[in-house]
Structure formats: structure tokens, C-alpha cells
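Page 37, top half.
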Amino acid sequence: MALLASNSKWPTLPDYFHDWALVDVETSGLRPGRDRVLSLAVLTLDAHGRQTGEFSTLLNPGCDPGPVHVHGLTSARLAGAPTFEEVAPQVGALLSSRVLVAHNAQFDYDFLAHEFARVRSWVPVSRRLCTLALNRLVGPATPDLKLGTLAAHYRVRQDRAHDAQDDVRVLSGILRGSLGAAEQLGLPLPLLDCPPRQDYKPYVPKTPCAYRNPGRLAKGGPLVQGMKVAVTGDTQVSREELVARSVAAGLNMMTSVSRQTSVVVTNDPSAASGKLRRAADEGVPLVDELIYLRLLENVQPGQAKGIARAGTARQRRAADTPADATTAQRAPVPSVPAQRAATPTAPAAGEGQLLAGRRVLVLGGTHEEAVAARARAVALGASAAVNLSAGVTDVVVLAGGEADRRMSRIASLGLRMHDAGWLLAGTPSPTPEPAQSMAGRQPDTAEVLVRGAVIDLPDTDAAWTVTATWAQRTACDVDVVAFALDVNEQVPGDEDFVFYGAPEHPDGTVRLAMDGPTEQAVTADLERLPLEIRRVVVAAAIDGAATFSDVGAVEITATSGVGAASIARATLDAATTERTMILAEVYRRGDGWRLRAVGQGYDHGLTDLARGYGVDVSE
């Protein structure tokens, strides 16, 4: 396989010097652990972009190959191919001690991790680079960031789409071009740590309970399907069998106790376990194992989650007609103060779209000054950038911004630079495009949303992704999470809380992806979401004592499909003390779905936010 060079030279910055393993997989479906790899290609490069090895093969997964119309791999074609176990040593040798590179890298990495786990091994890489995430930072002049589109942009020939061997060859040219563009912008690479784990096990999803929680077990009453049951202490029947019989009966087995727990099973109510202490605090009833086994013999039918409760007229109106963009946001946790963010300066008559199509980066200033500058830019129709990219058209330099290390890059790119007065004092002048501006830049067509703004999602049969990005030089860790809520603004079950520890809902309808150290995304498959789910809330939380003033602005974008163009973007600024922030929500409206940019911040941490939505959080 000859390496097809792009017009870009390999970067010269030492920070970009790594040994690379470029990977592409074709699979029988979209869910790692359940679906299998059908075709695999690996191409290795040294730190200077020279090819050092390659490998490609079809694989016999021993299962239905899935969407043949996409990858063209029939069962007959795969019948004589090796199994993954047979090629695992060779693949592992190519990946070892290299940075794994893929387009939508979490997808390829997760599939490889599960294939290695099936043969009692692990992926021997410690870091990965996603070329999709890298190009979201670069912001090339392309209508979208799909593999074929980027191949054309970086002048890489593509012969056979969805062919692993050709795709990894194309990926090598895209990597070369992307690294060159990133070097021109002075971007640090979005390398994500993924250390080898010997304890990695194949994905075994928790079976979500199909019934609503009917509440507490009444004294002398029966068990009802959907009741939340916790078990503590020793049992005569093995714990595994007890859980299996309970799940088969339609009960929701929990590993902790909360105010929503229906009953706790214990043979020693005097034990000093954490579950029993919490049960006493919340007034949760206790039963012993013998009584519980008797109750299991006659569990009463529950209400399936897919059937909407009648509710009150007020609840139905609240679910079907949410407050519009001018209405104050609903706080999910009572008695928590609302965000104290700066209000955008309203544009004067006739100037609301003066900066339409422009993308403004603000450097320097205090946090409050930068917030005000970004808000003013958005009020004038521009979008506010959080990182330097090829899409930036204007740079506002506040006090201290002249010392920013990116200033030399900005000057060499010929971008328009302004002082604070350009935005904050009167109407900004229509500065002409500099002669040295980056050629071929396309206008940003995504709709710019202000805090509280709402748009209708055009394709409600698709999976929609809300991606959150923040400044690459952020020193603290930020975690993006999602809550799938019912008509009462509560999670129907703990599995409806998606976070770093449980990054996928058991039915796969809501997923969290981490494409880089400063970028995370939540995908919701709207067509497959249960009818009881009325709203998916996307939030961010800071780990530790830092606040969003240390992070700065968070930009969110909405897309449908891998690498698709964004249809909307919003830049959200919290004030100085917030540690959690509601970024966006996707909610039902009649037969369709809407997206709202929220930007609601709170001083408390993720634990309190989750409990406010009804998640059973262990201490």
C-alpha cells in the first residue's frame, strides 16, 4: 500500500513528533461489545510521517455481518477469513507504544478494546488522536468534516469508501494535512489518554427495568413490577440468583439506597451498613430474605415505561409546551441560585446582524470583561470562538491579551485585530478583509444561539449530538453528563444518568463520547428514545475546587451524523463561582424535538445536581 502524500509538509514542531498507528474498522453494527469487527486495517508511521508498517484483513466474526449495503461484507465473503484471536498478536505488535489515530477514534478504540477483551487481552496503546476532533479545532474551509470531504480538502484520493484498507490510506493523508494546519494555527494536539487496562472486560449492559417505579412497598402489600429493591448483607440464596430472579420478575435491582428505594432486603436489620443507615434516614421499609422470596412468587403487574401517565393537565401542558426563549429557565434543584452571567448588551436598531457570519476570538481581560465582549459579539450576530481556528475572522485584544502566545500566529494569518472599544463602545466598523486572510474560508452557516434560544431539530428520526468544547489551556478537568428525564423532570431510573462512569444508556439511546481533553459530546437517538423520556439535559461539571471562571466560555454545537455540519452553536459563559452548568436540553414538542441553549450555572457539584434529578447517588 503506497502512502499518498498530501500537499502539506510534515510538521516540524517537536510536540507533534509521535509514532503513529492509523486504524480503521468496519463493523457489524454501531455498539461495541454487542457488535463485531468485520474488517481491520492498520498503517504505522514514524515521527516524521514515514510509513513503517501496514496490515489489513477481513475477519470472521461468527455472527450476522449487519448492514451489508454499507460495507459490502457478506457472510459468504467472511467465511474463510481469520478470527480476531488469530490476528490479535500481529495487530497488538503494530499498535504497541504508538498513538492510535482514527476518524471518530472512540468508535474504533472501543471496538478494538472489546475484541481484545474477548481474547483475554487489552489494547496496547496509551494515547489516541481523533482526526475528527482535531479538525473541529482546526476548522477547515469545508462544508462538513466527513472523511471524504476532508480527503478532498487535503487533496487525498479516495477510491473505495467504507473499505478499511483504503480508508486508512486516506486517513494518512488527512493526518498529514491536519497536522500541518494545526501547526500553522499553533494548536496543541487533542491527545486523549487511554492507558492499557488488563482488567478490561467485555461490555455487559445492565438490563434497564421496563416498568415505572410505583413507590414504596406497603406493609403487608405485594411487590409490584418496577419497584426499586436493594439487598444488603449475607443471603442464603446466592446474591446472583436473587438478583436474576428479581429482574426476571420485573423489579429494578439497585446497588445503593435513596429516597426512591421501594424496599431493602436484609437478614440483619441491626447491622451498621451504609445501606441500612440510609434506609433508616429515608424511611425505606425492610424485609428479610424469607419474606422477600415469598413476595417474589406473586409480583403484581406494573406500568410499562413506554405508556405515558395521564398526569395532571398542568403536567401535560408543561411537557408539551415548554417555556419559550424569553421565559426564565427552570432550575432542576430547588433553592439553588440561578447563574449570575453577564447579560448581552442589546444591539441598537439596525445593527443586530452587523457581524453576521463573523467568528470572534477574545483574548485577555478579566473574566467579566471577556464575558461581556463575547456576549456583545453574539448580540451583533457573530459567533464567539473559544480557540483559535481557521474559521476565526476577528480577534478582540483586551488588557493583557497582547501577551497571549497565539498573537504571533494571529498576526501571520492576517486576521483582523481590534481593541475593546470595537465591540463595547458603539457600533463596530465594517473592517475590510485583510489581504493576508486565510484563503478559501467558507462562512459559518450554523445558527448562532444566545442563552435561552430555541430551535426546531429538522430530522427527528436521526441521532443528534451536542458537543461541548472549551479552551485548550484549561487546567482543570471538566466532565460532561446527560440526564434523560420524564414528565416530572426526574430520571425514571439510575440508568438514565449518563456520565464518565456509565457512558452509555443500557439501550444505547443516549451515549457520551470523549474525543479530546477539552471536548466531550452527548448523542441522543431521538427516534429510539422511550416515549416516557420528555427531555435530555446535557450538563457539565468541574472536578475539584475550580469554577467555570477558570474554564472560561464553553461552546456547544448541534450536529446529526458523524462529521456532519453543525446546524447550531452557542457560546456559554458562567460567572465566577459556578461548578456545574446546564449546557443544553433536547426536548419533545408535539411530534418533534427542539434544542435549547441553556447556560444555567450552579455553585454545587455534580452529586447535588444528579440528586436534584432523582439519581440515586452513593456517598
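Page 37, bottom half:
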Amino acid sequence: MLNHTTINAVDCVLAYDTHEQKYLFVGPGIDTILGITAQELYQNNDAWDQLIPKKHLAGIKSLVNNLAENNSIELSYQITTPQQIIKSITDKKSLITDEATGHKILLSTIKETPAKPICITAASTGAEHSQQFLNSLIDSQTSFLIRINTDGNYTFVNKQYLKTLGYKAKDVLGQHFSITSLPEESHLCETAFMECLNNPGKVVRLLHKKPDVHGNLHDTEWELISIVNETGQVCEIQGIGHDVTEKIKIEAEIRDTAQKLDTFIESITDSFFIIDNEWRFVRVNAAFEKVWGKPRAQLLGKTIWDLFPELINTPFETAYREARTKQESVKFMVHFAPLNKWFRTAVYPSAEGLTVFAKNVTYEMRAQEDALWTKNNLEALINNTNDKIWSVDTESRYVYMNNAYIAQIKAMTGVYPQKGEYSYKDMGFPQEVIDEWSAYYQRALNGENYTLVLESVDDEAKNPAFYEVNFNPIFASNGEIKGVGCFAHDISERLKIEQELLSQNKRMRNIASLSSHELRRPVASMLGLINIIDRENPNNPENKQIIDYLQIVSTEIDDVIRLIVDHTFTGK
């Protein structure tokens, strides 16, 4: 086995068996430097690698994988601990062979150092080979890497920097850094340069625009740090930068989108709020403040159950807890008695909490209730009449029928009509009846409003009946005709009365004719005879003859009266 006496227990040293692919020893202090425990590293070989920026990890691994036996290499780079702390470390790696097992063991000695640029140096006989990998690593970076001397002149630029700005190395090296800066932002670069000179080891951050050779501007983000010589004097300034043009553009779009979202959230009439996993308000909009009567200053950071205890044991609490437990959206509508309001609510869960939209639909619900009440009363009224009421669509399919109409069709056909069926087509009517009613409907569908008197049957006994039928076009809100409404009123009794009145009028005319002709003559004769009676001498023989004539005339009057009576009551 590995001779542990070669390991100084005071240092943070790690021993890794490359054959077994596992750590054999993790020295104390690992958690202080890397922010991970020895146990985590034993359980997960990649725990250390996950702390190294991906842009450097591949190059570091390449150098380590090509490390020759009994050679060593020293690496300086930055890590980000699980606690999100950025640290600079020095990592010296050596490759040896365990005499007992023959396995190659990679020893790592790490220590935290002041912030310094990424640096990789090789030792022993592998130095030249390692330098080749170092150069390859530098040139393969997508980041910018530059060095500037204390006079501000470029001493090194990597390929990515030249490629992005379109320069040749000869155009930049030896030139002052201001040649790649905008004149209006040169003071930013100068300030950062002086801060690096005056603060060795301090990482100075700089964000500014750089023009390329074509005049295009690139937003760049830099980390600058001074490099000191063996005497501690600043000899160069090294910078690692990135082209963040697209990043800034995306961030601007995100801010714009967020602003639009904020505007939308504040402008909507729905109550909107977000609560975290501790049931605390994270955000509310103006509509929520208005409906619930509390300003957001009293809401944010407070627990919903403490502020609104009236929600407990209601469908609101049930829905919120269900959405959180199942991580599924929940939609519901409920009447909230304390506010006497109806709410249509949608709850959307996330890992951070719940987002809730609650729309006050009290007006709509009351309007629906009123509409339902009106509909029920209207249907009751419509079904409480013997008049037949129905409507059809543009294809002559039944849309609505009242009970009286349904009963009549049942009496005519023996089958109850159904909504959606073709009027007069599916009931076994003769083709001429179907064609007749199709023509009636079409007239109304063409926009005509008219009335017809039609004969039908009114009961199971097939008794004839006469109906006055109104055909009315039904218009949509856009003015388009969408159907026909029909109203049929039974006028059989009215027609019967009218017929009787006509007959009576005829009889009266006959009576008048008889009165004016047949009755007037004998009456005139009787009046004439009465006038010639000798009232002074009743025994006058002529009176007897006159009385005989009066008897004859009276019989004629009686015959005419009998004739009038016959015309009056029998119509003969």
C-alpha cells in the first residue's frame, strides 16, 4: 500500500489511485479550502471538478492526464465553492507509483492563495511538454487573455481576442491599450489600469465597449490583476475578458420583458399574487390590494393564513394546498361569503411557491343568475300557452319547441320531435308537405316577415284545426339571418264564430228583405181597411165585409211572421 509517511498530515494533501479510480487519502483542511468535506470527495470523485469553471477544466485535465511518472506540475486557478465563494488556489500534482500495488498514485497538494491570474507551470523533465499543453489551453479558450506592461502596452494577446476584434498580432503587440478602446470610454480603462498598478493581487473588474476593425462595438467584461516578480514588484497586468454583447442584449430583453410583465400584472383586473413555500406573500398587484382592502406594504413578507384567517377551511385553502402538494395547477370557482363575491381562481405551482390569479366574477354570476331566472320564467310563460312556438336554423333543424308544439307534432305523427332534427322531414310527412314547409322557412330566411292561415290537426282524434302562423327571421348580432321563429295561434274557434256571424248577417238581411217586401204589403192593406171602417155606424153592412178582409190580411201577416221566424232560427 501507499506509504503514508510520505504525506504531511498538516498539509491539505489528496492521494488518488488512478487504477482503482478512487481517493485513498484526503487530508485535513479540504473543507476549509474547497468547501466540500472529505466524505463528499470519497463518495463522488467529480466533486472537486465541479468547482472548476468549465472553460478551464478540460485544459487542466489534459495536462494532468499527460503528466509523466515521477514528474510534477503546479496549477494556479480559481474555483467556486458550493457556498458560491470564489477562491484562488495553487494545486501541485505529482505522479508516483505505489511500490506495494504497482498502481499509479496522483498526489495533489493544494492551498488557498491571494487572487492571481490562471497560471500553469510544469516541473522536472516534463516541463517542456507541459508548456505545450499550456499554450494549447490558452489558444483554445473562448475567453480573451491579454497582458499589458506597466507602460500600458500590450505584451500578449490570445487568438480569441484577435479573432473577435479582427486585429493581427503585429497590429496590437507593443501598442498602448487605448488603441482598442473607445475615446469616450478610455478613462474607464485608464482608471482600471491604475487601480491594478496600485493594488497588487486585487482583482479589478471592468465593463466597457471595444470597437473591432470594422467599426462594430463589442460589450466586454474583464477581470484584471497585477502580476508581480520575485521581488514583489508589479511587472505586468493580466486580463481575462469575455464578449458579453449578446449577454447584455439578452439581459436588456429580459428587463424589457420583465417591465412589460410588471405593467401587465399591474394593469389586469384579476387579483394576482405569489406566495412562497412558507405561505408568505412575495408579490401582489393593485387589483389584489383593491379587492382585499390591504396595501401591499402590509402584505409582503407576511403569511397568508395570518392576514386572511377567513380563508382557512374554505375551497381556497384546499386548492392552494392541493396545488402545492401535487405540483399540479388547480382551477375552481367559488363564492366567498365574507366578501359576498364570486371568484374564478387559477393556481399554478412552482418549486418556489404558488402563483395565483383570482378574477372577480360576481357581476357575471349575478347576470347568469338573472338570465337563468329570466329564461326559466320565459320558458314557463311559453309553455303555459296553447299556442305553438318553435324555431329552426338555416338548415330547418329544430332549435327550440314549446310543449304545445311538441304535443301537436306527436298528435300528428305519433313521434315526439327532437332538437336538432329536421322540421317536417324526419316525421314521415308526404313530400308535398315537406316541400311546402321548406318554402315557408325559405321565405323567412330570405328576410320576409309574414303570416299564413294553415289547416292542421289538433289532437289524437285528428280533429281539423286552423292556425294563424307567423314566420319571423331571426337575426344574429352582425345582422346575418341565423334561423326562423314561428308562432302558431289556433283560430278555429274564431273562424267558427266568424262563420256564424256571417250566417247571422245573411239571415238578418233576409229578415230585412221580408220585412220590407212581404210584410209591408198586408200591413198596408190592413191599415187601409181600418181607415174605412164606419165607426159611427157599427151596424153598417160594409163593416162586415171590411172585417172579413181584415181577417184575410191578418192571416197573410201571420204567414209572413212565420216565414221571418223560420229564416231567423233555421236559416231557411
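Margin note: Residues 492-532 form the longest helix (41 residues).
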